[in-house]
Automatic annotation (TrEMBL):
Residues 53-213 form the Glycosyltransferase RgtA/B/C/D-like domain. GO terms for biological process: lipopolysaccharide biosynthetic process. It is a multi-pass membrane protein. It comes from Polaribacter vadi. InterPro entries: LipidA_mod_glycosyltrf_83 (IPR050297), RgtA/B/C-like (IPR038731). Signal peptide: none annotated. It is found in: Cell membrane. This is Glycosyltransferase RgtA/B/C/D-like domain-containing protein. Its main location: membrane. Keywords: Cell membrane, Glycosyltransferase, Membrane, Transferase, Transmembrane, Transmembrane helix. GO terms for cellular component: plasma membrane. It comes from the Bacteria. One of its GO terms (molecular function) is pentosyltransferase activity. The chain crosses the membrane at residues 12-34, 74-92, 104-122, 152-183, 195-213, 242-265, 285-305, 311-327, 334-355.
Length: 492
């Protein structure tokens, strides 16, 4: 123990990383349930080969941890923290193949200090397992390519498949691998090696559950993830808000120093390739192959499409290793200072909720809503509960309540994976219901004063009740409209 303690004290980089992770671990018990936590927990409680929005890896992990440790908000958060901690360790191993000791330590601290690692540690999303299996894939592919270890072609294929079973953007792993082999003069010989194709075939085989679920359900998930986005991109309408919004997101996730280093070395390598027809060394090209398609590819869409803040996250793994080659000690200190300020502010917000969040994407109020909803069910017995906001309110109430809570498919609207839970809505015919609707940006405690026409179409009578007002720190922070609906008549 003394040896380990001495090693940590003498190694400033590890001390910084452990400090950030300890900070995140201490905050875990104070984090409330996020809608994403509840929704992907619902995945795990309704096991399936895949799911409508995404593959099911995050749901499987939440199910495993809840089976072992029990159901609680803390265990949900701890799952994310634990998997992300494994990603950090895997990153260190991967970075050690490319960087000297000093640069490795800087890259290690760079990764641990980012906001995106904090987000992954606190919030259940498919990106949590994606980043782990992405990193493991690169470790395996490195050993297969640069150390000529055949076993790692197989392990790399498995890891790439598991990454895809986490999130569809993992397809960029196979694309990156192929691009690297094509552009690397030293490694182009791999095109004649059966091991490359064995690895790719294994990665496809591991993704079979996702493909089979889509086959069984008319490829609903693939269509959902591609059709609307393809049509939006094809319209080619320039939007400055999309572009500058993406820059703002990346500045926040990476913090300004790291983001600017990303932009600098991206420009440097692309300029050298296009103007001087010079490619970097084979190892650097390997890192770029798994950075450029994702980072530059998505960034190039930002003038015409709203690119979500987490889409570029996989590129950060090799991007931060590349940044470790360039960042100076002075810039690293600036990065750490900015990071500490952001994390202190984040801590204050978590503990004291000083800035109200006018959105359903918040960790406060859900448990209190469940308590008030159960009181309503006692007042109006034999009622079922449903909501209409894609998944957020329904998923959170499902987490905290014993009775099943339904989504907007009750009134004939698409409801993401709630449409695939196997519910027979005809069994609810003639029953009464309580409809909960969030007032995201509420200004008064007044009733809504109007009824959604769809409620009238599916229920005999609809009466608005007093809204549920959630108080946080003695302040009115959240508001939910409530409607009592009688005699449900599902449409055939």
């Amino acid at each position: 123990m003394n040896t380990i303690k001495t090693f940590i004290i003498n190694n400033k980089a590890i001390s910084w990383v452990l400090g950030f992770q300890l900070f995140r671990l201490i905050l875990l018990p104070f984090m409330g349930l996020m809608p994403q936590d509840a929704y992907y927990y619902l995945y795990g409680q309704n096991l399936s080969l895949s799911y409508f929005d995404h593959p099911g890896m995050i749901g499987y992990l939440l199910r495993i941890f809840s089976e072992v440790f029990g159901q609680s908000v803390f265990i949900v958060k701890f799952t994310d923290f634990f998997i992300t901690s494994l990603t950090i360790l895997s990153f260190y191993k991967l970075a050690s193949y490319f960087l000297s000791k000093q640069k490795l330590q800087r890259a290690f601290v760079l990764l641990a200090s980012t906001i995106f690692i904090s987000i992954l540690s606190f919030n259940s999303t498919p990106d949590v397992p994606l980043l782990l299996f992405w990193t493991l894939s690169l470790i395996c592919l490195y050993k297969a390519i640069f150390e000529d270890k055949k076993l790692f072609w197989i392990l790399g294929g498995i890891a790439m498949g598991l990454a895809f079973n986490s999130k569809y953007t993992a397809l960029l792993l196979q694309i990156g691998l192929i691009l690297f082999v094509l552009f690397s003069k030293k490694q182009r010989k791999l095109l004649l090696s059966p091991w490359l194709y064995v690895s790719l075939l294994i990665s496809v085989a591991v993704t079979f559950p996702v493909w089979y679920w889509n086959y069984q359900n008319d490829f609903a998930s693939f269509a959902f993830q591609s059709s609307s986005r393809t049509s939006s991109i094809s319209e080619f309408k320039f939007s400055s808000s999309y572009f500058f919004g993406a820059i703002g997101h990346q500045l926040f996730l990476l913090l300004p120093v790291l983001f600017l280093i990303f932009i600098t070395f991206t420009y440097k390598y692309i300029k050298r390739a296009l103007l001087k027809f010079r490619l970097p060394s084979s190892k650097t090209l390997f890192l770029l192959a798994f950075f450029i398609p994702t980072f530059v590819g998505f960034f190039s869409l930002t003038p015409i499409y709203w690119v979500k803040l987490n889409w570029m996250m996989p590129s950060y793994i090799t991007g931060i290793i590349l940044a470790g080659m360039f960042i100076s000690k002075k810039l690293l200190k600036i990065q750490l200072i900015i990071s500490i300020i952001f994390h202190v502010l984040f801590c204050i917000q978590i503990l004291f909720y000083v800035a109200p969040i006018k959105s359903d994407d918040t960790w406060v109020g859900w448990k209190e809503l469940a308590i008030e909803t159960e009181k309503l069910q006692e007042k109006y017995p034999n009622t079922f509960v449903f909501s209409d906001d894609n998944y957020k309110t329904s998923a959170c109430l499902n987490f905290f309540m014993d009775d099943k809570v339904y989504a907007q498919n009750i009134i004939g609207l698409p409801a993401l994976h709630f449409d695939y839970l196997g519910d027979d809505l005809s069994t609810l015919k003639g029953k009464n219901a309580i409809f909960i609707d969030s007032d995201k940006r509420f200004k008064t405690a007044d009733k809504l004063g109007e009824v959604n026409p769809l409620l009238d179409a599916y229920f005999k009578n609809v009466t608005e009740l007093e809204p549920i007002i959630i108080q946080i720190n003695k302040n009115q922070s959240r508001k939910f409209w409530v409607f009592y609906c009688t005699d449900y008549q599902p449409k055939k």
